[in-house]
Amino acid sequence: MDDDIPLILVTGAGGQLASSIEDIADDYPGYQFLFLDQETLDITDKQELQNLFDSKPIQYCINTAAYTAVDRAESEYDEALAVNGTAVAYLAELCRKYNTKLIHISTDFVFDGLIDRPYTETDTLNPVNAYGKTKLEGEALAMANDPSCYIIRTSWLYGKNGNNFIQTMIRLGQSRDEVRVVHDQFGNPTYAADLAAALLDLMMHPEFDYSGGIYHYSNEGVISWYDFASEIFETAGLKAKLVAISSAEYPMPAKRPVNTALDKSKIKTKFGLSIPDWKDSLHHYLRETGQKKRSIF
Ligand SMILES: NC(=O)c1ccc[n+]([C@@H]2O[C@H](COP(=O)([O-])OP(=O)(O)OC[C@H]3O[C@@H](n4cnc5c(N)ncnc54)[C@H](OP(=O)(O)O)[C@@H]3O)[C@@H](O)[C@H]2O)c1
After folding, report:
1. What is the pTM of this model?
2. pLDDT tens, position by position, 99-131
3. For residue 16, is it within any domain?
4. What is the phi/psi pair of residue 174, to 5°?
5. Which CATH number is 56's domain given?
6. Does the residue 297 lie in any domain?
7. Residue identifier of the C-alpha nearest atom 18 of ligand 1
8. 193 — phi, psi (to 5°)?
9. Structural domain includes residue 234
10. Would you say the C-alpha torsion 44, 33, 193, 293 has a positive or negative sign?
11. Does residue 55 form part of some domain?
12. pLDDT tens readout for residues 6-53
């Protein structure tokens, strides 16, 4: 490791977002990266974190590690809180102490989804499920322990290494005659590769080191899960019948907010980011993963 080259710690290696950052790390030769998975760095282990920060000069930390099983969190609240809340406080405390710029990833599920427009960073926080509550606690603890950190909220994330909605649709679309998807929950899908590139581009911005705060990032375009599934079916060439149903017809352990579209004006204006449209990014993902149906032309 070269002490003159800034070091970026990425927690939660192996997850969707961390894998996407790893995929493009070589495009940023001015930085060294340290990708650590749960086995090599359990962020709930305060001593392990302390040892790491003691042993290496870490200039940036992107915390992608999280307990992301939304439904299971209803019955495992303490386990979810340990990763999404308490551990974030440890990390933020160390980042402040060692002058490390923390970029903590949060979620659209901090909102209750009841307003009928995209959510801005200053809208009222009121999570409707256990996962959202633990992530909100994480945001508060990050800010309290390291007021100059960044919190980036994202939504409906999918990436190459994930067991995400797209992969579920492809699996069901290939194995069933009929697939039922809710049409009354709205939001923005986010391709992890787009978010990964945005995070690193953000970090290159001249103002990045001198700033902080809460920002929203997701792909452009507000859609329902049914709209998303329709485009997946069409683009992947799935033959099963797709049926639109209401949330009431598809009860889940964790309640879902109705609308969590995110307003991205702040990140676009401050950092000059241009954000891809959800459909273009979905096509890109399906092409990259070899799941896009072949064109006959
Ligand atoms: N996925 C979404 O739809 C979505 C939507 C909005 C926001 N987000 C947020 O975006 C971020 C990245 O999400 P993602 O989809 O990339 O998540 P992911 O694929 O589930 O990856 C999270 C990673 O964190 C690891 N992890 C869990 N507990 C840990 C611990 N104690 N110490 C270290 N690592 C630990 C997991 O390891 P194991 O696999 O070994 O458990 C996993 O590799 C998270 O903050 C998430 O809350 C995600």
Report:
1. 0.97
2. 999 999 999 999 999 999 999 999 999 999 999
3. yes
4. -90, -20
5. 3.40.50.720
6. no
7. 15
8. -65, -35
9. no
10. negative
11. yes
12. 999 999 999 999 999 999 999 999 999 999 999 999 999 999 999 999
